[in-house]
Amino acid sequence: MMSTDSDRALALAGVFQSAHLAQQIAREGQLDSDAFATSLRSILETDPEQAIDIYGGATGLQLGLRTLVRQMDRPGERDLEVTRHAVSLLQLAHRLSRQTQRLQDLSAGIDSVKANLEHFPVTHENQIAALADLYQRNISTLKPRVMVRGEPLHLQNPSNQARIRAALLAGIRAGILWEQCDGSRWKLLFGRQRLAAEARHLLSAAD
């Protein structure tokens, strides 16, 4: 797979989109349904030719791209909680990428979700529950844990809990893509302006 700045910006936007979606659910009990569908579908794209194929283009990643630009290039608009979640997802993806058995278990579970697509779309509550279960069994025991805070009324709702975990699993998938595209802590720290510029370019192309 290629590893251009554009590819890395896409991957990082996928991470930020997942972090933003999890926060939306926790705080408001609702979310951007198009962005959520794009993020969930990305989990099932396990053998793409290009990074952009995972998301079917940049249109469904506009939430993540806008969030990336705010976090990287607009200090006054940053949301530190979203940043913490994104960093945690990148760390978890890094650790997961080195655990063969967990990856095999995840792959088998994702194949099961794919097999059910002929009966239910990926956004169906049964599919979301299956993805959430994959996150709980394979990711939630790793450190650091992603602690999503919000309104107790929303967080105690089992449907919202499943949507948050499924969104976080999509963030892990994006974090794996970040590593596959030669993303690193150094590129994140010292390549912020390039990543933000690529995100703005992708946003303009998606409009």
Structure characterization notes:
- The protein is mainly α.
- It has one domain: Orthogonal Bundle (YcfC-like), CATH 1.10.3890.10.
- The chain is built from 10 helices and no strands.
- Helix 1 crosses helix 4 and helix 3 runs antiparallel to helix 10.
- The protein is globular and about 40 Å long.
- The mean pLDDT is 94.
The helicity comes to 55-70%
Strand content: under 5%
Number of strands: 0
What is the average of the pLDDT values? 94
- CATH architectural label: Orthogonal Bundle
> What is the global morphology?
globular
Sheet with most strands: none
CATH superfamily: HflD-like
CATH class (first level) name:
Mainly Alpha
Q: Which stretches of 5+ consecutive residues score pLDDT under 50? A: none
What is the element string, with H for helices and E for strands?
A: HHHHHHHHHH
End-to-end separation in angstroms reads: 26 Å
Structural class: mainly alpha
H/I helix tally = 10
Topology, element by element:
Elements: H1 5-28, H2 33-44, H3 62-73, H4 80-96, H5 100-115, H6 125-138, H7 152-155, H8 158-180, H9 185-190, H10 192-206
Helix pairs in contact: 1-3, 1-4, 1-8, 1-10, 2-8, 3-10, 4-8, 5-6, 6-8
Task: Provide the descriptors you would attach to this structure in a database record.
YcfC-like; 69% helix; 0% strand; single chain
Structure summarized in a few sentences:
By secondary structure, the protein is mainly α. It is built from ten helices and no strands. It has one domain: YcfC-like (Orthogonal Bundle), CATH 1.10.3890.10.
